[in-house]
Fold this protein.
Amino acid sequence: MGPCKRLKTMKPTHKLLFVLCPMLVLGFIYYSSGMLHQHVWGQKPQIDAELTTPVLKKGNEVKPIAELETNAIEGQSLVEVFDKQGFLLQLDTKLPQELAYKYSNLTEGACKPGYTAAKMGVIYPKFVHEVPMFLDLNYRRFAKVSNYMPPFGLKTQERIVDTILTTTKTFGLREEQERLSCRRCIIVGNGGILFNKSLGPRIDEYDIVVRLNEAPVAGYSRDVGTKTTLRITYPEGAIQKPDKYEKDSLFVFSAFKPLDFKWLRQMVFKEKLRGSEGFWKSVAQFVPREPSEIRILNPYFIQEAAFQFIGLPFNNGYMGVGNIPTLGTVAITMALHNCDEVAVAGFGYDMSKPHAPLHYYEAVKMSAIKESWTHNIAKEKEFLRKLVKANVITDLTKGI
């Protein structure tokens, strides 16, 4: 006979076991199937962490699923929180509690050390803070600039760059700016939106005032201020009249093609300009600056702005149609890494006002602007709007 005897031959205790045995087996099967079902539906989705992060969203609160128990999922929806460039979609996200507490305890109006990098790190987790403004003799430590041709790197230009850096010998800001424990920077664009805003005194309050290309100061100080710390330019954009240069500003060179470095070498060594073919317009013949007052902007910022922040076509790392950021956006990218607080003024084109001035210093109208084959103004504006909305930068003229 089998282990379960017929009822008529069993004792009362055995009869009870005979009844309970199948019930226990069925219960075990039901429990196991339930656990299997729960495991399958409760597992975390596999999503590319570079592009999106699965989160739970409830009201204004966003939390990664990894930080929550599976049973908290019920009644809530999964959403993607990063765009394809890696920026948080919910740009009004607050700083971590410890940083918010730190900044709230500062005296009102005081400079906030590390604020820009902290805010940038919240909306763009891939942000790397420590990237120097200018090239120094150890620039080869940055693989990202060594592996690409200009404008995105220095490949094929190492010899001439070494010659220039060995001559200039200085690779930072002026001593008084280097000593600052907290830097407030403003990037002054050339837009006509600056006209008649009387922002000059406010602009001059910043520790570091960055100007672009040949945009003048004399005669426009009421709107643009008088102070210039850095003037960032490339050959075609450089001031051509030596007497128009500010007395104390650093000349910061940004290269967009190999020919630009040859031009810079002749400016550093005060040589007569030779071989001007290849420039798209006339270039300065002389830069009234000593070698120690000349810097080379780190091309890392051109590369980062183009491919990481804006999402322009990579084109195998070469200059191509629509993949070069404007100098203004490059300067802002530089400031994100090197300034504690960042403001901008004079940015933004309003194409709905064709008769508005294009630049604050000339009579050319907005209708004259044409989309350059090298730039993508719409995508740049999208990037800059993210920074403004997230309070990473402050737009004094509200044109972005």
In short: Strands lie at 54-58, 61-64, 77-80, 184-188, 208-212, 230-233, 250-253, 294-296, 341-345, 393-395. Residues 1-10, 29-78 have pLDDT under 50 and may be disordered.
